[in-house]
Specification:
- This protein is mostly helical.
- The protein contains 3 helices and no strands.
- The protein has 2 domains: about 45 residues, no CATH class; about 40 residues.
- It is rod-shaped and about 95 Å long.
- The termini are far apart.
């Protein structure tokens, strides 16, 4: 039966083979291509997105408040005219 030492040795040999194989170079090249492609896109970070979402939410709240105030002022104007 296989023991833990055999599995550790096999794992170490596989890791060494992968480190020394062309697969590692391919992975590095693919990562570089992906990073280069993404850098050309007009993307924002999650933090920037969250901040802008908060700004937009506050602007919506202010818009709702202003619309309510306008309706209130229009109602007052109509009662004064009558």
């Amino acid at each position: 039966m296989l023991n833990a030492k055999t599995f550790e040795d096999l794992s170490a040999k596989i890791s060494a083979a992968v480190e020394n194989s062309p697969a590692k170079d391919i992975e590095k090249n693919m990562r570089a291509l992906l990073v280069q492609g993404l850098s050309k896109l007009d993307l924002v970070t999650r933090e920037e997105f969250d901040i802008q979402s908060q700004v937009l939410a506050r602007a919506r709240e202010q818009l709702i408040e202003l619309e309510a105030r306008i309706k209130e002022l229009e109602a007052q104007q109509h009662t004064k005219v009558k």
